[in-house]
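Incident log, support desk, overnight shift.

02:14 A customer reports that sequence design results differ from what the structure should imply. Their input is reproduced verbatim below. On-call engineer (initials T.W.) acknowledged and began investigating.
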């Protein structure tokens, strides 16, 4: 909308660069162009404001397919007014000289024209298309049909309107039909998920079986090695016992041989000692046998004296001395001498 200010009964209009202004005064075109700025008197001025920028028109309408299914179509049409003079001549783009607001609704008229034209061509396409095909390929076919239909519409160039682009956002069936259509795909997806789950479980079971077999094989190998270890320990213990027994036998035989040798040596020594003692005794007896009784008595007294305690002094009476000498084999007169 143009910016209008008041000064001393005059009006000043300032428009945007994307707005085409047409100023008529007493039926004569005074100002015509984009982004104008000028003074005027409101009582004698007729103003028209035509936007020339690209505008987006979103539309949504219902259509029916060849199998009598209702679908909702969402589309967007981009258009622009390429001939402002034609548009101002065909549509009411006049503005109030005091406020600058449109007196009519020209953009709504353009929107109605574009929407009804696009809806007509969309209905023509979808009426010959089944629902399944419309949901798969309907967007492209509807876009092509609407583009061609708008390009061939004679009212648009006569009004100075150019269609820049057509976009079909979506074609959707009713909620119940959409859920029904989703069911097979969901079931297939669920089946694929179940199959993947079963395959994963089968793989897991197979891996668990392989793990169990490996564990069993490990236990069997461990038991076999333990058996070998027990056999080896028994063999080692038996060999150790045999070696110990052999060593003990050798030690016993050696000890016995040593004892026999010692016994023999002791016996030989005892025999030689006995023989020597016997010879000494025999010699001693021979000497005693050759000696007289007096000598023997003297030896006996000597031996007896050797075994008696020490006597410092002794007093003998004549009777005892006579008897002692008699026993020693001396004559009694020898005591006097």
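02:41 Re-run completed on a clean worker. Output:
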């Amino acid at each position: 909308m143009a910016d209008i200010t008041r000064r001393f009964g005059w009006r000043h209009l300032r428009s945007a660069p994307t707005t085409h202004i047409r100023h008529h005064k007493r039926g004569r075109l005074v100002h015509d162009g984009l982004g104008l700025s000028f003074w005027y008197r409101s009582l004698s001025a007729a103003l028209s404001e035509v936007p020339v920028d690209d505008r987006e028109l979103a539309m949504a309408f219902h259509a029916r397919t060849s199998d009598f299914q209702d679908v909702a179509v969402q589309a967007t049409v981009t258009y622009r007014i390429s001939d402002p003079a034609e548009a101002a001549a065909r549509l009411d783009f006049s503005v109030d000289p005091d406020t600058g607001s449109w007196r009519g609704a020209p953009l709504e008229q353009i929107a109605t024209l574009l929407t009804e034209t696009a809806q007509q061509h969309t209905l023509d396409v979808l009426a010959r298309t089944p629902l399944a095909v419309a949901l798969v390929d309907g967007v492209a076919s509807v876009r092509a049909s609407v583009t061609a239909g708008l390009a061939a519409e004679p009212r648009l160039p006569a009004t100075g309107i150019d269609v820049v682009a057509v976009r079909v956002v979506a074609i959707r069936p009713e909620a119940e039909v959409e859920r029904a259509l989703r069911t097979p795909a969901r079931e297939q997806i669920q089946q694929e998920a179940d199959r993947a789950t079963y395959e994963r479980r089968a793989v897991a079971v197979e891996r668990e079986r392989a793990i169990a077999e490996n564990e069993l094989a490990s236990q069997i190998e461990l038991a076999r090695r333990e058996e070998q270890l027990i056999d080896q320990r028994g063999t080692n213990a038996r060999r150790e016992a045999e070696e110990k027994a052999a060593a003990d036998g050798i030690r016993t035989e050696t000890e016995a041989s040593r004892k026999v040798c010692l016994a023999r040596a002791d016996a030989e020594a005892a025999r030689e000692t006995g023989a020597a003692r016997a010879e000494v005794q025999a010699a001693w007896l021979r000497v005693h046998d050759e000696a007289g009784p007096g000598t023997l008595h003297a030896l006996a007294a000597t031996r007896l004296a050797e075994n008696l305690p020490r006597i410092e002094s002794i007093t003998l009476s004549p009777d005892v001395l006579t008897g002692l000498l008699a026993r020693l084999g001396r004559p009694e007169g020898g005591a006097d001498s």
